[in-house]
Amino acid sequence: MRSTIQEFDYVIVGAGSAGCVLANRLSADPAVSVCLIEAGPSDRSIFIQMPAALTFPIESDRYNWKFESEPETELHGRSIGQARGRGLGGSSSINGMVFVRGAKQDYDGWRDLGVEGWDFEDCLPFFRKLESFEGGRDPMRGGSGPISVVRSKADHPLYRTFLKAGQEFGLRDAGDYNSGAQDGVHITQATIRDGVRCSTSLAYLKPAGNRPNLTVMTGCLVEKILLDGRTATGVAIVRQGERRTIRAARETILSAGTVGSPHLLMLSGIGDRAALAEHGIASAANLPGVGADLQDHVVAPLRFTAPGGVSIRRQLSMVGRLKLGIEWLLFKSGLGATNFFEVGAFFKSDEALPYFNMQHEFLPFLADFQSGKVTISDGFQYFVSQMRPYSRGRIALKSADPTVKPSIRFNYLTDRRDTLEMVDGIRKTLEMAHQPAWGRYRGQPVDTPDIKATDAEIEAWLRTVANTEHHPTSTCRMGTDDLAVTDSAGRVHGLEKLRIVDGSILPRVPSANINAPIIMAAEKIAATMTRR
Length: 532
Prior knowledge:
Number of strands: 25
Number of domains: 2
Number of helices: 13
């Protein structure tokens, strides 16, 4: 196998939600050379660009790493699939495009954990910097950033009924939930620009694509981080059968995600010394927190039939999809320009809680998005998610071979508090689904508990259906305790010239879909790097 050596100032591993941000911001200095390395392909696909086609890249192992967990003990031994983007834009190219910042209390809580400089007031300027909100600039929102954020139309009768039923239950209208208080029902905001998915590849990488100091390499397997003592010097990759050394004069930056970044650290001898020894890997830095503290939002779908013709099932038939596709190709409008998650809510499972801990996402048809094989029928469904789980999982090596995917265990519902919160949240959701507003549209429950179900019955059902919201974080989290891996600027403890910038460094999973917080974090750390 041939071998070549290339050198840049910065080497970024992973062209995802964070990596594209860093590539843009660092290469804005023409005196700096940047190499962005990605395992997957380009994002030039109609199935990525069309918002309504979001299930297609999730089904494809071309654009999705298609990780699977180990059997989850509290979910009857089921293995849970985890979608992680593979290709330019990473998970921002395959996600549901729902834009949520998270609550002020989330970020203030990071500060209380000892992560300095990350409370909400510190993060707000970077949330504003990243976005171009269609409502315009104000003290809470950005008006000229790379990511386009639009309000959904939410003009279908089932969307309007969802909002009305939530208010009948007692939830307020949250309005712009990314500006003020987040709790209540809302019309969803989405990362869509002129009818096209606004991934970080479109928003950040494309504008920087012609810079002579930015090199983008796709189709690369990164085998390990190269170290000289305790200093990172670059990475070893394989591309098209050729082994290459990509050296970094200033820094090597991992943006490979909550699964990929700890995996690559461990392959490079950075992690728990004893665990690495089991795979014959010599320890370069004993950091037991690498891969630990994995967090994710657990979700349960509540599904109901609806009278024929009410939901949008007919518009998503084979003929309907053809019409949808043509309209989108010609005008970038119609159903092809929606992500379908046009309304939602945040609420408390228990009024004694200091702030909301549950989320609703909603679809005006029946479809199973978890399995990746979508069969659509008349109806509607609530997705109920717990925002701040107590259960913790981990990423671990299965092999020292970099082509072998790591072991993932989420440990969903292993902390009893998570189960109790989910049961209470599901019960409240059932009550919302039985408000008068739903009277003319709600049919029969489909594999969903009856409104009169006991807590024990709801819990038993939950363990058969609970799944992932695809929001994993915190496996290389920032902090100063024994399990922290990075400092407040993403630099890896005990090593030089090695930084991590992606969802793995978030100290706790936010009460939000995680794409916006990850982009914010990348903007924030990029700003500290370019102020030198």
